[in-house]
Amino acid sequence: MAEKVNRRGFLKAGGIMTAGTFISGGITHHVMAEEQQSEPAKPIAANDHIQIALIGAGGRGQSDTKVAAQVPGVKVRAAADCYDGRLTHAKELWGDGIQTTRDYGEILARKDIDAVVIGTPDHWHMRTAVDAMNAGKDVYCEKPMIHLYSDGPKMIETARRTGRIIQIGSQRVSSMIYRKAKDLLASGAIGKLNMVNAWWDRNSSMGAWNYTVPPDASPETCDWPRFLGTAPKIPWNPEHFFQWRKWKAYGSGEAGDLFVHLFSGTHFVTGVNGPTRAMATGGLRYWRDGRDVPDVLVGLFDYPEGFNLGVRVNFVDGGSENEGLIFTGSEGTMIIGGGGVSLSRVPRPKAPGYVIESWADAMQKEYLESYYKEYPIEHPSGPIPLAEEKYVAPKGYDDTYDHMKNFFHAVRTRQPVVEDAVFGFRAAGAALLSNLSYYRQKVVRWDPNEMKLLA
Ligand SMILES: NC(=O)c1ccc[n+]([C@@H]2O[C@H](COP(=O)([O-])OP(=O)(O)OC[C@H]3O[C@@H](n4cnc5c(N)ncnc54)[C@H](O)[C@@H]3O)[C@@H](O)[C@H]2O)c1
Predict the structure, then answer these.
(1) Which atom of ligand 1 is nearest to the CA of 171?
(2) Reported confidence tier of residue 47, pLDDT bands at 50, 70, 90
(3) Which one of 163, 170, 215, 280 has the fewest beta carbons within 10 angstroms of its own beta carbon?
(4) What's the angle, vertex CA 193, arms to CA 191 and CA 197, rounded to 5?
(5) Half-sphere exposure of 65 toward its Cβ, with a 13 Å CA cutoff?
(6) Under a CB-based contact definition with an 8 Å cutoff, are residues 257 and 211 in contact?
């Protein structure tokens, strides 16, 4: 998956502006067409802007909103955050004319805001999304959709009752790479799926959520009580404020931060609702810095469609940082990673079993001759021809842009989004089973259709 594809070179060789194919080192490469990213933007009249506001203007909220502002017809009008430095930067990014406030309620009261992007820590997702929908706003809410299981039904019910659009921010669901994987699986490319293995390993302090605390962080520049919200009231703590993922009062551990991407990807590719049974283990193996969540987490899941999922996140892997998903089927293997999908199929003839050696010589000879006529390889244990195909997204491809574009398309057309609250709850609900199992030290059960925890 590490091989680089030179798109320009390929387009020149292929001479066409759509997806194409070339062979390199026995592997067939396809560069997916950029046109597949999304449908062309419609012309938008000047007075037809979608006016948006950002709630939770931290790392992800700002990067989401930068991407949103690139979608034609979208204008950023306001930002709410609990740290003043981020409000200052919001004005630097989107102009002095935008409203900035610590209180997102002031933004929701504005009639001219059509939609909000929510980039708060997990423990604020439900409250901000429900408040925004009740105020008549459409919502793009970052993953994981829920922090507590009780958040899911509230968000789904509010979306249904208010008729607002809500999209959850697992951008893989809009990715052309995952779309290709979905199409390949549906076409029978790997036969009957029996297993998915997914992982997301990191090996750095930043990867382990030790985000830098700004030098001016203080109770004056940070609205600590507002940040805490429903979390236990504790004295001002800048690490809790800026490295909130390390504590389960605000974040959802590796399961909510990273498993959830692997679940939304798996659910999208396979089209299933979720697992019925989960068990997880792990531990705090290295980053013993006061956090109360593990830095190594391994989960196993049963899917009623007849496959198992194994997921892993390791923040101390001693090597490279990478992520991927392997879909294993009866006829082959499909790997998502490194900016593309690769597919390999190994022919699996029924090789002559060792018992033939006990047959009469003439019978053995006759049998082997006919066998090698059908499967012309030198020896059953010799090299087997490997058929591998690779589909790579164009250089610079950004699935968050497609996810945003899908969201704003739904805002305009009132058509369903690719990742609604039901999909978001099924992905996060499945991922967070790992935390339940880890802390309870028990197998846990889930009804993925009704989205309910079972005893
Ligand atoms: N889709 C992705 O790939 C992706 C990537 C990173 C983060 N995320 C998600 O985005 C969310 C934010 O993560 P982050 O890394 O940007 O965190 P962050 O700490 O950088 O930003 C969170 C911001 O929310 C603000 N905030 C807290 N409570 C608030 C409230 N009541 N009202 C307004 N603002 C409030 C904080 O002051 C902070 O600036 C998380 O849920 C995370 O899981 C998603």
Answers:
(1) 1
(2) low
(3) 215
(4) 130
(5) 30
(6) no
Q: Yes or no: say if 30 and 63 are a contact pair by the CB < 8 Å rule.
A: no
Pocket test for ligand 1, best of 55, 62, 67, 82 (most atoms within 8 A of CB): 82
Q: Over range 207-221, report the average pLDDT.
A: 98
What's the chain's average pLDDT? 89
Q: Quick check: helix, strand or coil at residue 79? A: strand
61 C-alpha to ligand 1 centroid (Å) = 6
- Cα 396 to middle of ligand 1, angstroms: 24
- Cα angle 57, 62, 67; round to 5: 145
Six-digit token string for 424: 């978001």
Mutate to test the pocket of ligand 1, among 99, 120, 224, 399 (most ligand atoms within 8 A of CB): 120
Least trusted range by pLDDT, from 11-20, 129-138, 168-177, 238-247? 11-20
Instruction: Tell me, in angstroms, the distance from the centre of ligand 1 to residue 142's CA.
Output: 8
- pLDDT value for 386: 61
Distance from the CA of 251 to the center of ligand 1, in angstroms?
A: 10
- Strand 193-201 versus strand 307-314 pairing type: parallel
* CA pseudo-torsion sign 311, 314, 315, 317: negative
Q: Whose CA is nearest to atom 9 of ligand 1?
A: 142
Q: How open is the CA angle 336-337-343, to the nearest 5 degrees?
A: 45
Bond into 214 cis (ω within 30): no
336: phi then psi, degrees, rounded to nearest 5: -100, 130
Which of the 8 DSSP states describes residue 222? B
Distance CA 428, CA 153 (A): 13
The Cα 453–Cα 443 span in angstroms is 12
